[in-house]
Amino acid sequence: MGRRWVIGWMALAALVSAVWLVGFVAAAMELLGPGRTGSASPARPGTVTDEAGPSRGPEAGPLRLVGLGDSILRGIGDGEGGGVFRRFGERLAAADPGRRPPVMVNLAVAGDTSADLGRRLALPEFRTAVRAADGIVLSIGGNDAFPSVDVLKRPAAYADPEAISAFQATMETVLRALRQDNPKAPILWLGLYDPFSDVPGLSGAAEAALDRWNAAIHAAARSAPGVIVVPTNDLRQAAGAAFLAGDHFHPSAVGHALLAGRLAEVWAALQR
């Protein structure tokens, strides 16, 4: 989820609420501002280590997790910094303080679709990172489901069968590529949530479409071993408006924290 819907969202915000417009501008500044280019963050003692790509040397000991996908995993909307992926690593570090903190390699790119991800996985730096991963976190599908504001003007387009079918086929190819480079690392794929459930005139169509997109995610996940779909819409519904950032689309700090907690729960269950 990212750049491609930015201009359209400004029009939508004017139609729905002036408050949303203000929130969107703040979120857009975050999306386009510095610190979102994937540059490495310096490690601090006792914290997770962020890297934008493969390490310069072999890692001995620490868990190595790779993030792939869109702006959700990039951390957009988390005004407190870090985002779901980094928060996930911090939870794992806190749960096992006797072990070296995990190395977090975040290769997510704001705005990416499934097709974009497929192309990136052919790049040497992506393949190197995937091969070295002990676990992979995936967030992809939001930009396939919501390519532009036209979807909101025509809610039925949100559930376009051809688009959903193409997405599923592309993701089956993506997952095969991941498994070719790394047959064993668990792949935790964040499902989609409905940001429009409280928008008059959109909630019903959006929820129905969401079910179809998430069904495609589950179907694609079944095409490869070791892929776990991590549900997110229940977290959005339980948290309500607090789950969303000012743009009414990306998760807020609360939303990112809830997603990180869900990932940590799933990861812990896999280790038992």
How would you characterize the overall build of this protein?
- It is a single chain.
- α1 packs antiparallel against α2 and α4 crosses α12 (253-271).
- Mean pLDDT is 81; it is low at 3-47 and 52-59.
- Helices cover 49% and strands 10% of the residues.
- The protein is α/β, with parallel strands linked by helices and 272 residues long.
- β5 (187-190), α10 and β6 form a beta-alpha-beta unit.
What are the defining features of this structure?
272 residues, alpha/beta, six-stranded parallel beta sheet, 12 helices, 6 strands, disordered N terminus
Rg calc? 18 Å
Strand elements, count: 6
Unreliable spans: 3-47, 52-59
Count the DSSP helices. 12
Largest sheet: 6 strands, parallel
| Silhouette | globular
Overall SS class: alpha/beta
Average of per-residue pLDDT values: 81
Strand-residue fraction? 5-15%
Gap from first CA to last CA: 33 Å
What share of the residues lie within helices? 40-55%
SSE string: HHEEHHEHHEHHHEHEHH
Order of strands, widest sheet: 1-3-2-4-5-6
Write the layout of secondary structure elements.
Elements (H helix, E strand, L loop, with lengths): L5 H11 L1 H15 L16 E3 L12 E6 L1 H4 L8 H13 L7 E4 L7 H7 L3 H9 L2 E5 L2 H4 L4 H4 L7 H21 L5 E4 L12 H19 L5 E4 L2 H7 L13 H19 L1
Parallel strand pairs: 1-3, 2-3, 2-4, 4-5, 5-6
Helix pairs in contact: 1-2, 4-12, 5-9, 9-10
Put the structure in a nutshell.
With 272 residues, the protein is an alpha/beta fold. The chain contains twelve helices and six strands.
